[in-house]
Design a protein that fits this description.
It is a single chain. By secondary structure, the chain is of the alpha/beta class. It contains five helices and six strands, in the order E-E-H-E-H-E-H-E-H-E-H. The protein has a six-stranded parallel sheet with strand order 1-3-2-4-5-6, with helices on both faces. Helix 1 links the parallel strand 2 and strand 3. The chain is globular. The relative contact order is 0.17.
């Protein structure tokens, strides 16, 4: 069985993918030590779906992340991380947000705001996320499909990759 192709920073994907490849940016809770590694769960789910070769994932969970990096534009590794994320968010066919209970995820909230009107967002926001109400209202305003269950969100990703309209998800 083939595996889902995953790109993590600082790895840059090719400029063009084969026809039929669907790319998904995995936005959402990381907060090392607080959020489970849900990005690996997504890759495993898609690999197990029998359609792994159709998907490319952009996973911002950097393997060599160093929490001592100064979060300043002038810090080269930090700058590289942030620009990689912005580039892959823009490039992806879909953006899957997962807001884990018990996390704050301020950058993910910022990214949701930046991409809410893009028409390519799917959100999973379980009960227990500290700003669930805000997320739900943004999703309602921009007609973003939202669910509380990650597996349901992944079934939605499969549907969109197969041509289902976003507005039909979780209806």
């Amino acid at each position: 069985m083939s595996e889902t192709l995953v790109y993590k920073p600082p790895m840059r994907p090719p400029e063009v993918f084969d026809k039929g490849v669907f790319s998904v940016f995995l936005a959402g809770s990381i907060e090392m030590g607080r959020a489970r590694d849900w990005q690996t769960e997504v890759a495993d789910f898609l690999t197990g779906s029998g359609h792994a070769e159709r998907f490319v994932l952009f996973n911002p969970r950097r393997d060599d992340w160093d929490s001592s990096w100064e979060q300043k534009r002038e810090h080269p590794a930090f700058y590289e991380q942030v620009t990689w994320e912005m580039d892959m968010l823009e490039r992806s066919d879909a953006i899957l947000f997962y807001f884990a209970p018990g996390t704050k995820s301020p950058i993910s909230l910022l990214e949701l705001g930046l991409h809410a009107a893009s028409g390519k967002v799917i959100v999973c926001c379980p009960d227990g996320f500290w700003r669930k109400g805000n997320v739900d209202i943004v999703c309602e305003r921009y007609k973003i499909p939202v669910t509380t269950d990650l597996e349901e969100a992944l079934i939605g990703v499969l549907g969109v990759a197969n041509g289902a309209p976003m507005e039909a998800l979780f209806a």
